[in-house]
């Protein structure tokens, strides 16, 4: 007799003990596996939610437009239904109000223009207020009009001079070293001029008309050029140039309307390892007509950089030099009398120096410079004496200076933003500060928890501070710059409307990295109508480019991630090791190691996430990305197929040797060595497991489209199955609306094992 005849359910439960409830609970969770009819309805409902979400007002970017009195400003506030209104703020009084009666102004414009005008959607391209906000000057279309806000009688005006102020103009942005410098041929005193003949330098004395040949070895092929003058007009700095032509890449436009042949497009495009023009520096003395070679190696990466002359002494100047391979940055001083040099700053590293984040600002009156460096493990600000090279660290700690906003030379203050200072917060949240050159008297301008964005008044007495979190609506405050105190709350958003629309906001999740200590931050987007008794595949949106961090920190109530989640997925985004805005050690993981892409951290994060979110089925994980994310998502199936099962990769740089030089050498190093090939998706194509969709635009001018075609070629030669979509005429993109639709269908088919709607049975555009 079989044992099952002797065991009742109760007896069996006693034998299994407490585990029975756990197993029963697991049995209740079944995969979300919709029928074709259910899937079609899900697509439709997701589309309706998408439409509804986009009609809900969000004010994450309140931009002030300052009036001529500099004591007031206006801004446009978004309203539900894609409507808006205009708000006037009196800074002195600390009050805000509706800028004008929108209905009366719409009626006046309607009468003047003879067409219907919506009061809820007034299209004003520019405007400003006078007389304490009682007189309005506005531009609509190409017409300037004025009115007082009592009569609303409109008339044409020539009074169009409002306060033109761009807050971004204040930012002390790091100039790109690719920009080079403008060659100057006329001396500062106007008494001499330079010219080139057959590649040689000639100096002409404008008073006497005499001309002198300063060089003999220049040629048309290797000329002298790129000239700068000393402030006293006694010295010329120039370069012997050894040109290298940048090689070209090509693509064909296959489907240009009105043609029957493809059009070949070619452009210069430097790839890793390509040669660059080099510049050998020389000094020319006007009085003696003598030429001295500078005791320094040629500039063979970027071009000649601006010269910074010692204050009151035209004998010495400094210039910046970044060595190719991004492992050494110098500020070099040159003695024009001898050609001898010394290093004022000489930063070297075994990994990389993030060249694009090197900030330098020169203070000629005091022979100082402000410089940012990660030499201590985190990006911080340093004050450097440009005569002695002595460095004083201005900011310190295990946190990151994100940007230098401006420098007050008179007060010897630096205005900057940083993240990671507040240990109880997300380490990526940006806050703003002001600090003395000596590292003292710091003022915190934005202490409220959240990710901040500031905009200063023209005189910087006040500023507008908007802060939020990914799932907490923004608050916008008007504050005093002197002490950061709030003058007035301008706006306070809420999430109520999103809840009423049935939308589920993203959630923040934190788990440990591969080292078991470092926090990895990400977000989780779940279906708004998630059935708690079912499990859902997980899809990761990846962009692991080391140039930044990418998980949204400001209010993001609806995005493509959430839109995809509505189809029956749990969609996540993560910043793993190797991305920026944390410590140097965190960032260094990417060094010569782009194939890593933070995958060990991402996988651990999702495994931990599945413990907290039991509806997440990490046995069905998909991944998608564009550009570097296209490279990353394909790499997931090549190097981690035990975890990732399906990928959609758009315009990926699948081989770092094919992509742009400046980006890839920054992270993969120079010279181009075996690790480039070893980490290439193309080289590893035979390792493909899982389902892959490659998308590329034929007119991509960022990552050459041939990168994706080479990947397809390698997969074909390895006898691998994959899907391929080339979009005619499209540039660097995820495929546009068509590509995004195909991506969703791909994941529905391969992760949900369901059928997406059949679109070829109807006519008209795809939905």
User: Residue-averaged pLDDT, rounded?
Assistant: 94
Taken from the alpha-carbon principal axes, the silhouette is globular
Q: What is the count of β-strands? A: 42
CATH architectural label of one domain:
3-Layer(aba) Sandwich
Largest sheet: 9 strands, mixed
Kindly describe this structure.
The protein is α+β, with helices and mostly antiparallel strands and 767 residues long. Among the domains are: 36-53 and 497-750, Rossmann fold, CATH 3.40.50.1820; 68-162, no CATH class. Helices cover 17% and strands 32% of the residues. It has 13 helices and 42 strands. Strand 6 (126-130) and strand 7 form a beta hairpin.
Secondary-structure map:
Blueprint: H1 9-16, H2 19-28, E1 30-31, H3 36-54, E2 65-66, E3 72-79, E4 83-90, E5 95-98, H4 102-113, E6 126-130, E7 135-140, E8 143-148, E9 155-156, E10 192-197, E11 200-205, E12 211-213, E13 224-229, E14 235-242, E15 248-253, E16 263-268, E17 278-285, E18 291-293, E19 308-309, E20 316-322, E21 328-335, E22 341-348, E23 360-363, E24 368-373, E25 380-385, E26 391-393, E27 400-408, E28 413-419, E29 430-436, E30 443-444, E31 451-456, E32 462-469, E33 472-480, E34 486-492, H5 496-500, E35 507-512, E36 519-525, E37 534-541, H6 560-565, E38 570-575, H7 584-588, H8 599-612, E39 616-626, H9 628-639, E40 646-650, H10 661-668, H11 674-678, E41 691-697, H12 706-717, E42 723-727, H13 736-750
Parallel strand pairs: 1-37, 37-38, 37-39, 39-40, 40-41, 41-42
Antiparallel strand pairs: 2-3, 3-4, 4-5, 6-7, 7-8, 8-9, 10-11, 11-12, 13-14, 14-17, 15-16, 17-18, 19-20, 20-21, 21-22, 23-24, 24-25, 25-26, 27-28, 28-29, 29-30, 31-32, 32-33, 33-34, 35-36, 36-38
